Amino acid sequence: MWGVGERNHDNDAARFAAFQQVPAGAYPYVAGFNEMDFVGEGSSGGSAFSKYVDVWNNIIVPKATGDTLLISPSSAYQAYEKQVGWFIGNVTRKPDILSVHIFQDTAEKALKVSWQERRESAPC
Fold first, then answer.
1. 6: in domain
2. Domain total of the chain
3. Which positions ≥6 away from 99 have C-beta within 8 Å?
4. pLDDT band of 120, cuts 50, 70, 90
5. What burial class does residue 10 get, using C-beta atoms within 10 Å of its C-beta: 0-12 exposed, 13-18 middle, 19+ buried?
6. In which domain, by residue range, is 17 found?
7. Which of 34, 35, 58, 84 could link 76 by a cystine bridge, Cβ 3.0 to 4.6 Å?
């Protein structure tokens, strides 16, 4: 899932409409939104966070039947983000897997991001 169909780029509305037609259990996993915390090209951010929770609960979760795994939304802000943890605390079904974007130039910086994500998003 890219976004909630409200962005005017990256075919967000078309992707959202197509996703809604996917039968429940059709895929082994369903991934949440791309960078819901960031507004700009290549992200799905900019909608109210309550909208992402509503779409997750009412559209994404019903697609995850049987052995389908749910993957959390990703965050653009990495070690500085707070929204994925908030999101996980407000959905009816928590993701099975935490999606993390890490764009760092050293292993130390990457570890800092991963520990921050774990702290903000646990328990997932």
1. no
2. 1
3. 31, 32, 71, 72, 73, 74
4. low
5. middle
6. 12-121
7. 35
Among left, alpha and beta (phi > 0; psi -120 to 50; other), residue 30 is beta
Buried b or exposed e, range 100-122, using 16+ CB within 10 angstroms: beeeeeeeeebeebbebbeebbe
Residue range 116-120: average pLDDT? 64
Distances in Å between the Cα of 4 and the Cα atoms of 1, 29, 37, 98 are: 8, 18, 13, 19
- pTM above the 0.85 mark? no
Taken as a whole, the chain contains a residue count of: 124
60 vs 82 pLDDT, higher one: 60
Token pair in block for residue 37 = 């915390």
pLDDT in tens, 21-75: 999 999 999 988 888 877 777 667 778 888 989 999 999 999 999 999 999 888 7
Looking at per-residue confidence, does 96 or 105 come out higher? Answer: 96
2 located within any domain: no
Residue 85 resides in a domain: yes
